[in-house]
Amino acid sequence: MINVLKSYNELSSTVADIVETQIKEHPLSKLALPTGSTPLGMYDELVNRKLDWKSVITFNLDVYLMNINLPQSYQSYMRKNLFDRTNIYPDNSHFPFRPFSGFEDKIEGSKGIDLCILGIGTNGHIAFNEPGSSFKTRTRVVNLSEQTIKDNSRFFDSIEDVPTQAITMGLGTIMESKKIILIASGDHKLNILNVAMNGEVTKTVPASILQRHKDIEIYYCD
Ligand code: PGA
């Protein structure tokens, strides 16, 4: 079921409440974290709540293959919007890295992800698992779809500057999370959200696999 909220502020505070409860009840929580426009309000909320992040372990869902020191990298995004504004330990915040088996082992060695926060692309991707991705995929390098490059060009000076490749957690990796929260904001996301959550479970719409997760909550605002 899609929970429709009245405003972006409500979406952000509702999801921040879920993260806050998770961290307070389980200080050693393992979180999978998204980037992009949608979670910005949630990160602001979390920072303002001055939570104790010192035992929390985070795994980012994906990274562009690009210079990580540029402002558009997801490493820069996370530093700016969360890590530099909390007491999280740098050693506890992980981005997908090579060898990918090492990254997967780190997740599994930490006994898996407790809470995974996801956005959804207008083409139905989750993390950077683009249409056509197998439901069994693990962390790997992917080519970004034309739609994703176009959608994300708003963060770059020109579309030519958007990286064409990324490293993403796989759909198999994501589905092993104990709990998943999917967030989407804006009219342009409503159709794909409905298709993914109420339509056929198909590789053409990667987010549709989430219908098979037993602990998923979906939050939307227009
Ligand atoms: P957005 O990206 O939050 O910037 O819309 C979501 C996504 O592509 O997963």
Describe the structure.
There is one protein chain. The chain has 222 residues and is an alpha/beta fold. It has seven helices and ten strands. It has helices at 8-25, 40-48, 74-81, 100-109, 146-152, 171-175, 187-198; strands spanning 2-4, 30-33, 57-60, 62-64, 93-94, 115-118, 140-143, 165-168, 179-185, 216-221. α1 (8-25) packs across α2 (40-48). It is globular, with a radius of gyration of 16 Å. The model has no long low-confidence stretch (mean pLDDT 97). The structure holds 2-phosphoglycolic acid. 2-phosphoglycolic acid binds next to loops.
Topology (elements, then pairings):
Blueprint: E1 2-4, H1 8-25, E2 30-33, H2 40-48, E3 57-60, E4 62-64, H3 74-81, E5 93-94, H4 100-109, E6 115-118, E7 140-143, H5 146-152, E8 165-168, H6 171-175, E9 179-185, H7 187-198, E10 216-221
Parallel strand pairs: 1-10, 2-3, 2-6, 3-5, 6-9, 9-10
Antiparallel strand pairs: 4-8, 7-8
Helix pairs in contact: 1-2
Bound molecules: 2-phosphoglycolic acid (PGA).
